Amino acid sequence: MSKSEQTMGNTDPFIDIRKKYESLRGKYSDIIVSSFSETDFKRYNEILFSAHSCGIEGNSFSVDDTRELREKGYALNLVNKTLLEAFEILDHFKAYDYVLKHPGAELDERLVKHLHVLLTKNTISYKGYRPGEYSKTQMAAGDTIFRDTKKAVANMPKMLESFNRAIKEDRTHPLELSAIFHQMFIYSHPFPDGNGRLGRLLSNFILGRFGHPHIIILKEERQNYIDALKASDKHNNMLPIVNFFYDTSIKRMQKEIGQKKNLSKNFNLGIEKGEKRNRGISY
């Protein structure tokens, strides 16, 4: 962990944005999280996260499509959607559910491989691979060639142990730790398929361990997300991906807090108008 953190320089570049994040996190908990039941908030995150995480990889299900799939399951009548896309979302539900139910699990190969099995159980065989098995060939995506696969796979236990220790020591801010892990896991790219979805799940596993809001990278932000990953790799510096994680989380909290306040304002205004009409007052 120290080597990764050293790439960000000797001075702390995140003082201001960390304060902003923490201030919003408190408000988010009071205004948003507390307004849901635990079950409803889990469902809310599950649908948003699954739709966007799979959407980043090309899945065409919208948030509304994903909500309907969550409600109807295999009984959903697919229109202009493929069964493979539906299975991908359904598998993502199962993997996310496991993350939520095992917040104290060790971040090790057993967890990573098990999540990969859940995440790709009904899709990866169509591509000629087996769920939970590391890749045996060099991995690439678009114009990006990832780290030497054999070396990355061999280093996976050591890397996971390093982050597992960092979680227990609790010396790095959770969002920063989550982002740094994400960068290193994505560029290790140990599996033949599903690395992006799994990397985002594992980042939220880290955040959940500390009780922080889960990060949801919108599919509309796909290019900015990829650019941040590439910039961190190119310059061997975690600043771009950490800043992207902070920016993404802050924007989400600001948006949802704003929506909640507007709804409350409009609701109260509606009551006031109704009361005045009842008293014969017109506008």
UniProtKB/TrEMBL annotation:
Single annotated GO MF: ATP binding
Binding site for ATP: D193, G194, N195, G196, R197, L198, G199, R200
Active site per UniProt: H189
Sites marked Important for autoinhibition of adenylyltransferase activity: E57
Record key words, sorted: ATP-binding, Nucleotide-binding
Database matches in Pfam families: Fic (PF02661)
Matching InterPro entries: Fido, Fido-like_dom_sf, Fido_containing
Source taxon at top rank: Bacteria
Residue ranges annotated for the Fido domain, each copy included: 107-247
Protein name stated in the entry: Fido domain-containing protein
